[in-house]
Amino acid sequence: GSKGATGSLPFSAYEIATLDVHASAIRANAMVKSRNTYQIVAQQNAIVKDNFFSAGATVAQGALILSLDNTKELLALQKVKVRLKQAHIKYEEMLLTLKDSSFYVSNGNWHEVKERTLYKMDLPQAKVEYRQAQLALSQTKFYAPFTGVLANVWKGKGEAVQLGESLGFLYDMY
């Protein structure tokens, strides 16, 4: 400290200001804007199977954030795999039968016959159903598309979710 004409000061002016700042709480409102936002939205009615992070957690890119019960989707995918395999076998068997008939091969209609047989055996439809089942299964798991902070997580393990319901947000704040 320093002594002046009016008396003794225990601290310098700088030290007093520093003490005042540290002694009182500083409140400030700030808005942090993220570069990327990922909203987790339920693509079907389901039950939350696992919620791997809570609000405020930092989540690495590619990490599984949340999964829904996918028993129904796994079963549907297995059924469609069987249907696809059966359709493919029927198609191959029919082609062998038709190939034995030299009429189609010798008349140059073989490509057309193969295409018509393909549709007759329902193979394209089975392939579409398989892709749909794969998509439905993929919609039961939510992975972080980038590293960020998780916010507004509204559902926990065992809770029901509805199609279109928001389940949380991931913000990239780095």
Produce a short descriptive summary.
This protein is an alpha+beta fold and 174 residues long.
Percentage beta strand? 15-25%
Termini gap = 44 Å
Give average pLDDT, whole number.
Answer: 80
Helix proportion: 40-55%
C-alpha Rg (nearest Å): 33 Å
Listing every helix as H and every strand as E from the N terminus to the C terminus, the arrangement reads: EEHEEEEHHHHEEEE
The side-by-side strand order for the widest beta sheet comes to 3-10-8-5
Low-confidence stretches: 1-23
How many helices does DSSP assign? 5
Describe the structure.
- By secondary structure, the protein is an alpha+beta fold.
- Helix content is 42%, strand content 24%.
- The protein has a four-stranded antiparallel beta sheet with strand order 3-10-8-5, with no helix packed on it.
- A hairpin with a 2-residue loop joins strand 1 (2-4) and strand 2 (7-9).
- Helix 2 (71-100) packs antiparallel against helix 4 (110-120).
- The longest helix is centred in the middle third of the chain and has 30 residues, at 71-100.
- It is elongated and about 90 Å long.
- Residues 1-23 have low confidence and may be disordered.
